[in-house]
Amino acid sequence: MKLDAIDLRILEAVQRNGRITKVALAEEVGLSPTPCWMRLRRLEKAGIVSGYHASVAVRRLAPVASVMMEVTLENHRQADFDRFERAVAAIAEITACWSVGGGVDYILKIMAADIDAYQRLVDGMLDREIGIARYFTYIVTKTVKEETALPLSVLFSAPKAPNS
Known about the structure:
This protein is of the alpha+beta class. It is 38% helix and 18% strand. The longest helix has 13 residues, at 33-45.
């Protein structure tokens, strides 16, 4: 799908504020509301806008331990990767999982009530025999920066507003 400068401005606006009104979005990108809304719907149908989410400050509700975990699998057949990935997808506390190149197979981001809850989760993963040969745990002591999305202006030259 070919995107123009207006599409990129729409995407940046909804990326910053998913609750922006039709009128405010149209004003921000320099279109009238109907064509702006039609463009947004086209971006949604194309899967470029994949959803709208609230960012909940979980730590204001309850204490949470954030843990990064490196995992190396025992075997490296496709069936072994598939089994591990299916198991990980079913565990709510695993909030992100990346297959990586290098000395380990996966890096997981885990959020648990505390370190004991994390260890129980790991023990359960090991008991389920999902192919883990070894793992390393890194306790997050301080979040310095955590973004949920890359600003589009980093990928594309910043679009100019009309009449500027």
